[in-house]
Design brief:
By secondary structure, the protein is an alpha/beta fold. It has a single domain, classed as Dihydrofolate Reductase, subunit A. Helix content is about 30%, strand content about 30%. It has seven helices and eleven strands. The strands form two sheets. The protein has a nine-stranded mixed β-sheet with strand order 5-6-4-3-7-1-8-11-10. A two-stranded antiparallel sheet has the order 2-9. The chain is globular. About 30% of the residues are buried. Pfam families: RibD_C (PF01872). InterPro entries: DHFR-like_dom_sf, RibDG_C, Riboflavin_Biosynth_HTPR. GO terms for molecular function: 5-amino-6-(5-phosphoribosylamino)uracil reductase activity. This is Dihydrofolate reductase. It comes from Microlunatus parietis.
Length: about 230
Amino acid sequence: MTGKVFFSVAMSLDGFVAPEDVPAQDLFGPQRKPDDPKVRRWLAQWSELHQATFPQRFFRENLKLGQGGEEGLDNDVARMTHERIGANVMGKRMFDAGELSWPEEAPFHTPVFVVTHEQRDPWERPGGTTFHFVNDGIEAALVQARQVAGDRDVRISGGGTTIMEYLNAGLVDEFMITLSPVLFGTGIRLFEGVDADRLGLEPVSAEASPRGVTYLTYAVRERNAA
């Protein structure tokens, strides 16, 4: 039995999953620009978007930030989401930013398949994360991810463009949005270019957190499916 293909993202109330694009080198590289107003704004908005996650015990454990942290619904959601994953898939832009910002022990602890045109040997990190670079498209990356995930789920980690490619290709079974009570006004929209004529959604659950976020889970269906 194979697991599901899903994505889970935090989203602002006006539909953005990230602030306006800023070069990863400016944010995280060795020549980063912490005093640049665009960088300061990006970091402030990103922190607001994920404000419910950072204080959680599981988040601190997973990134080796020490003991302590909050417990409750938000912590349970973070832990259960992580534990269902047998493999991750991501786009090259997300990997490029993460390569600059993730700790040595990257936070995935599964094989990760990077959809890219770059030829590169697998990159093994401590803690069970190995990045594999797939050069022949999103479906090939998913096939490889399913093979190693077994009966666990495959998460499409991001970024937004890669998520949309999988969603529009009919390859996503389910997704969860952590709806955060912030407004961006501009940025990277999650559903930009979605094939709305093809895709239908079936509500699975909605849970409100004491931290002000709402967890919305949907199953994805073909509109013409019986």
